[in-house]
Backbone:
């Protein structure tokens, strides 16, 4: 029983990580830095609650989360692909924008500075986005490895000039990748808020960065990134369950994903090599 | 200066201002208020009275330090997203040193020791990404972000578990070495948090200017930032330049922590950084990584931050967070666009 509870809680924590990390893999493999995952999650969470409240249906909420993520993805693509803005600066700006905009709209739409009212959501295992989260990494791995678009995406991320000379539109591939990234991570945000039946201020709480950490620790491979998401979620579950026992301060357990990522980028245990054109216009 | 250089320098901030005004109007209208009234309130609550000016100066002081930190790292080609953690660590270092020092210690020595503690703690946090980059080629953006989370968690643990006064998340008050408010000599600023550390911020900007543009180290730093390969061929040690740039950046951000700890509250409080490190990225970007530009842009962003509080009676103060983000985005988009268009027009008309 304890074990089942542990597994269930791990999956529930992992679902938004998996969806956001899938978005991160797609964008970064196309050569676009994904510091924006945090903004996709937060806006997706708000979009889901706003739509669910308006339509009184959790399924409409899913569409709202998807739409909000796509909107922020489009902003990131517009800035970095069309205008060649620095991808890191755009990421920082969009993260600030998501915090400010969701707070503003929370105040405007629900007259609150902290949370929305309770909206229709999903219960437990009936949450469709939980299953999407579990399936997304294998699907993504297959797409990247075996489809035409997957091949093009990888080419654009490794050597855009070569891809361009073969007649692949780098801009088009990156637009699609960043939009997909926004949509996927937006659904991750929708999972969060529809699971809790409400939006709370800054409810993404750094999950976008943990997802990014999973992408890097997983060396930009979907399946490895998925395993990293599950490991991070398990560590978090452990942290919650140990809180009563308090053998290790929770702050130290919370550091695990970040420390692992530092080790991964430093290449102490097996080098973590990013896509060659990552971050370059 | 050539005409194109002026266009390249002034056009992006003007675009950003326009974007902020239009977006602000839309948000205000969406909230059912009159834009003119809100803008009037914003100006009135910031530069319209001495309390407002004092609050802007107080906020600009911290932003000046974090902006300089990001700017000097960027001149070396490094993106310091870690100013937030370095700022918090600097404030913590000063607060901890203040607790350990005897209350009878003369002001000057107490201040200098806390000054050093802030700079050292900031540097220590920045050293990790610097060394990882120089030694292993680890990307500094990822490393600084991860350091932010780890440092903030560690400081939270230290304060929550060991150093706090009961029922709070702050340490006990520091006895000696506190920095007086501006209102001590200039009573019009009464009640505002502006303090004499603003002088230190301006000195820091001057020092960064001298280091960057009039020292051998600054020359090497900029050379590395412009073209790593060429700098290496010229015999500059790239790795050690990166590490030294990060140490300096960390020290600057760390000193920003003095503003809250010594200039305002007199103790360290968990979470005091509150995003000022991230805004430092915006400050450096809009200030084009030039010390003078950083000072001006710190004042602009401080005005927006304080302005948010002023307009809260009519529209949610979060409106300015949206505007700040849009300003960053607009500048980031306008800078490369202007550059390519200028290059194209120069090539078109020989």
Residues:
């Amino acid at each position: 029983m304890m074990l089942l509870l542990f597994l269930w809680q791990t999956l529930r924590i992992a679902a938004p990580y998996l969806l956001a990390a899938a978005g991160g893999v797609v964008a970064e493999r196309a050569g676009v830095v994904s510091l924006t995952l945090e903004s996709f999650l937060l806006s997706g969470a708000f979009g889901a609650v706003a739509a669910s409240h308006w339509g009184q249906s959790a399924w409409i909420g899913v569409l709202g989360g998807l739409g909000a993520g796509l909107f922020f993805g489009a902003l990131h693509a517009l800035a970095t692909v069309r205008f060649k803005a620095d991808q890191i600066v755009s990421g920082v700006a969009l993260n600030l924008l998501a915090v400010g905009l969701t707070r503003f709209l929370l105040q405007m739409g629900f007259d609150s500075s902290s949370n929305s009212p309770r909206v229709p959501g999903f219960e437990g295992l009936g949450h469709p986005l939980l299953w999407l989260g579990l399936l997304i990494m294998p699907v993504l791995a297959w797409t990247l490895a075996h489809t035409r678009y997957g091949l093009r995406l990888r080419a654009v991320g490794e050597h855009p000039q070569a891809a361009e000379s073969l007649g692949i539109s780098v801009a088009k591939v990156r637009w699609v990748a960043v939009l997909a990234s926004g949509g996927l991570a937006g659904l991750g945000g929708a999972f969060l808020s529809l699971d809790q039946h409400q939006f709370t201020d800054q409810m993404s709480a750094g999950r976008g960065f943990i997802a990014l950490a999973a992408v890097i620790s997983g060396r930009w491979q979907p399946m490895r990134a998925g395993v990293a998401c599950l490991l991070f979620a398990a560590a978090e579950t452990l942290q919650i369950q140990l809180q009563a026992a308090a053998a290790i301060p929770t702050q130290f357990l919370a550091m695990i994903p970040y420390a692992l990522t530092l080790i991964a980028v430093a290449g102490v245990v097996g080098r973590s090599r990013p896509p060659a054109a990552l971050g370059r216009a | 200066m050539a005409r194109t250089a002026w266009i390249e320098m002034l056009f992006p901030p003007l675009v950003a201002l326009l974007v902020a005004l239009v977006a602000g109007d839309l948000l205000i209208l969406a909230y059912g208020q009159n834009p003119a009234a809100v803008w009037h309130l914003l100006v009135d609550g910031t530069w319209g009275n001495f309390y407002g000016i004092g609050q802007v100066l107080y906020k600009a002081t911290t932003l000046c330090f974090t902006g300089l930190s990001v700017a000097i790292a960027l001149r070396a080609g490094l993106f310091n997203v870690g100013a937030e953690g370095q700022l918090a660590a600097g404030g913590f270092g000063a607060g901890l040193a203040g607790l350990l020092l005897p209350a009878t210690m003369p002001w000057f020595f107490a201040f200098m020791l806390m000054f050093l503690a802030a700079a050292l703690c900031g540097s220590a946090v920045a050293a990790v990404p610097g060394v990882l980059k120089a030694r292993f080629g680890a990307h500094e953006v990822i490393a600084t972000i991860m350091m932010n989370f780890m440092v903030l968690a560690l400081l939270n643990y230290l304060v929550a578990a060991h150093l706090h006064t009961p029922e709070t998340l702050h340490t006990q008050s520091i006895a000696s070495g506190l920095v007086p408010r501006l209102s001590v000599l200039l009573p019009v600023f009464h009640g505002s948090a502006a303090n004499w550390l603003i002088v230190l911020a301006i000195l820091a900007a001057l020092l960064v200017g001298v280091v960057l543009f009039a020292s051998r180290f600054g020359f090497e730093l900029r050379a590395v930032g412009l073209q790593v390969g060429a700098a290496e061929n010229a015999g500059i040690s790239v790795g050690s330049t990166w590490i030294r740039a990060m140490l300096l950046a960390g020290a600057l951000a760390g000193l920003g922590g003095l503003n809250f700890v010594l200039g305002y509250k007199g103790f360290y409080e968990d979470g005091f950084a509150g995003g000022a490190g991230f805004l430092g990225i915006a400050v450096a970007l809009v200030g084009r990584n030039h010390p003078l530009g950083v000072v001006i842009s710190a004042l602009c962003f401080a005005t927006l931050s304080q302005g948010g509080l002023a307009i809260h009676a009519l529209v949610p103060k979060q409106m300015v967070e949206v505007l700040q983000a849009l300003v960053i985005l607009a500048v980031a988009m306008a800078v490369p666009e202007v550059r390519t268009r200028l290059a194209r027009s120069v090539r078109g008309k020989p």
Observations:
- Residues 2-266 of chain A form a domain with the ABC transporter involved in vitamin B12 uptake, BtuC fold (CATH 1.10.3470.10).
- The radius of gyration of chain A is 18 Å.
